[in-house]
Amino acid sequence: MRNTITSLALFASMAFYAQTNSVIGKWKTIDDETGKAKSIVEIYERSGKIYGKIVDIIDVEKKKSLCTACLGEEKNKPVMGLVIIKGLKKDGKEYNSGKILDPTSGKLYKCFIALEGNDKLNVRGYIGVSLFGRTQTWNRVK
């Protein structure tokens, strides 16, 4: 009985550690220009790739906004629920080879993300090479 309880406690602590040491979860986006929180993005895995969708918008007045500047199938869709991170693949300690959508401008950028500790996520969108881009730091929602 004692061994069973010890094993369960060890398994639970390992599962908790693995979850906090992963990009999977909910993240509060911070605007790199204003420093203000903008939204909550849920990052998830599907078919071995990483995706992220907007699950909440902080500014109440923008909760019902549409992606009017977007192109293709995202055009005029609600920003809430929009998948903005698409198809990232794990490459060492970062995830890359995917795209990120800026719903404000409607522009699609190459993207890579990397954890900084357990509770900060560096998200870089760029054109061409990563030198020509900008980075936002998102905070894990607990």
Automatic annotation (TrEMBL):
Keywords: Signal. Residues 1-18 form the signal peptide. It comes from the Bacteria. Transmembrane segments: none annotated. Gene3D superfamilies: 2.40.128.520. Residues 25-140 form the DUF2147 domain. This is DUF2147 domain-containing protein. It comes from Flavobacterium petrolei.
